[in-house]
Amino acid sequence: SYSFCTLLDNRLLAFPTTPLVNMEQAAKAFFVACEEGQPCAEFYVEGAEFAAQSEPLVEIKTLKAYTEWMKDFGEKTVPGCSYELHHMGVDKERKSVSFFATFTGKHTGPGPCEPTNKTTNSHYVYVMQFNDDLKITKMTKIWNAPWAMKELGWM
Length: 155
Known about the structure:
Elements: E1 6-7, H1 23-35, E2 44-52, H2 63-77, E3 82-91, E4 96-106, E5 119-130, E6 136-143, H3 145-151
Parallel strand pairs: 1-3, 2-6
Antiparallel strand pairs: 3-4, 4-5, 5-6
């Protein structure tokens, strides 16, 4: 299958070949699938919520819609994009997992304007809430979208 993003942090494990047994495994599997444009619906509940206080994402309210947006963005607008994972945190008491990473992409495809051939190196954080079945019920993305948009030459 086609992968639009390249993993730069070899410490993150790819998809597990055995059933998921803990929240950390489930979170890692979802993160890799989402960032690489792979199917990831198996990792979240139907209707899982999505939230972001970032201009391009404010209208996106479900995790399904976000993963579709991310796949489209990565395959079309910034093909060949990549991410580097810097940190992963697990809070078992609150049933949450967070990832801090840097997204790198060059605008060479269709987007909000003609391709600029400019590159962004944009930090972001995912915070995921899990249920007892190891499925994501909500994910929040913390992202300084204006930074990325300015670097890409969109503003």
